[in-house]
Specification:
Largest sheet: 12 strands, mixed
Distance between the termini: 48 Å
Oligomer: single chain
Structural class: alpha/beta
CATH topology of the largest domain: TIM Barrel
Shape: globular
Number of domains: 2
CATH superfamily of the largest domain: Aldolase class I
Radius of gyration: 20 Å
């Protein structure tokens, strides 16, 4: 297949009428639109509820006043330009501010706004910070999408991270295998480079983002097969998205098909209450039902995903519910007093986030009482 052309304007989408473009223009002025010919070809334009359409095309409901741009308070954990350090052993580098396409529900959509400078081209200060903190053994490269960068530029970054002896794992967060698998299929030098840095005792993990089974096209499956042959480890994470994968049957198929190709489900994230995301969000207690029902139809290999909330205070695993309570546990926490803490909350069927539970106020006060959460 020829290199897919990127689509940055609604006028490049022939399936839209002039009236539809006019209606959607204010949304794209607020939240950037970007796609490509390959991903657009996966849309069934005859289906008004098509899940791929939901993932990539603007929706008028994005204009509803709900949420905030940095709901997980990533800015609080920024220790150097483009570098975040929230958990002791893991650092994050925002290496660019471009993706192969822009998910409408992106929790970092602020990066794609004109006045944002969180992602940087020069990661020198971030590398110096990581190098001076020997407790950091995992580094996540994200953005934006690192795989949209040139192979040469990405190698330069990976080589510098590999030179830090205490970093054992390099993770690359990417949706390119779903958005444009030909980035992998048409550039053998990419996997050759990654293979050269995925060492016997220091692996590279590709954290991929398949949100719906329809994204697992033959090209995408072949791309993941080549990733495995190159000696990389791949796992999948996805938010739970209304109108995309909030059906247990769909989620079961996604879990199973990922397990068949050797890409185990890793996290299912509660959709963050980021500005514009209400139309994609499901209440927490509904999310529990969906994921539980999906996992009940999967083998152990396919049901490993943890239903998790990436809260400002940490990653909270959403375990279960009964008639009165919801049960949760801190999977990771920035504040040492919250690490591994198990807690219960009185049920609230209208809760989309931890902060929506009345009982959570005492818990949240524990972290907020610190002038600055110190993990160094």
């Amino acid at each position: 297949m020829a290199k897919p052309r990127y689509i940055n304007h609604l006028k490049q989408v022939p399936q839209l009428s002039d009236r539809e473009r006019e209606i959607l223009k204010p949304i794209t002025e607020r939240f950037t639109f970007r796609s490509n010919e390959y991903y657009q070809s996966l849309i069934n334009w005859n289906d008004p509820n098509d899940p791929i359409h939901r993932i990539i095309m603007p929706d008028t409901f994005e204009m509803l006043a709900w949420g905030e741009l940095d709901v997980s308070r990533e800015d609080d954990y920024t220790v150097a330009p483009g570098c975040q350090h929230k958990y002791p052993d893991t650092a994050l580098l925002l290496v660019n501010d471009v993706c192969g396409a822009y998910c409408r529900f992106c929790f970092r959509k602020r990066l794609f706004m004109d006045d944002n400078d969180e992602a940087v081209r020069d990661i020198t200060e971030g590398l110096e910070y990581i190098g001076s903190h020997p407790e950091i053994n995992n580094v996540l490269l994200t953005g934006g999408d690192p795989l949209i960068m040139s192979t040469g530029r990405l190698e330069e970054i990976i080589r510098q991270v590999r030179d830090i002896k205490h970093v054992r794992i390099i993770r690359i967060g990417t949706k390119m295998p779903a958005f444009n698998p030909f980035r992998i299929l048409d550039d053998p030098s990419l996997l050759e480079m990654l293979s050269g840095h995925s060492l016997k005792h220091k692996k590279i993990y590709l954290i991929v983002h398949f949100n719906h089974p329809r994204e697992l096209t033959p090209a995408a499956v072949e791309a993941m097969n080549r990733v495995h042959k190159a000696g990389l480890v791949a796992v999948n994470q996805t938010p739970l998205l209304r109108g995309v994968n909030d059906d247990p049957v769909v989620m079961t198929e996604l879990f199973n098909r990922l397990s068949y190709i050797g890409v185990p489900p890793y996290y299912v994230f509660q959709c963050r209450p980021t500005a514009g995301n209400f139309t994609y969000s499901t209440p927490i207690e509904q999310s529990i039902e969906i994921v539980d029902r999906a996992r009940s139809n999967c083998s152990g290999l396919a049901k490993r995903a943890r239903l998790t909330m990436s809260h400002a205070t940490g990653k909270i695993e959403i375990l279960a519910k009964d008639n009165k309570y919801v049960y949760l546990k801190y999977h990771r926490a920035a504040d040492p007093r919250l690490r591994d803490r198990f807690f219960t909350l009185r049920r609230n069927p209208n809760a989309y986030w931890l902060d929506d539970y009345e009982d959570a106020s005492t818990l949240l006060h524990t972290a907020d009482s610190l002038d600055r959460i110190n993990i160094n």
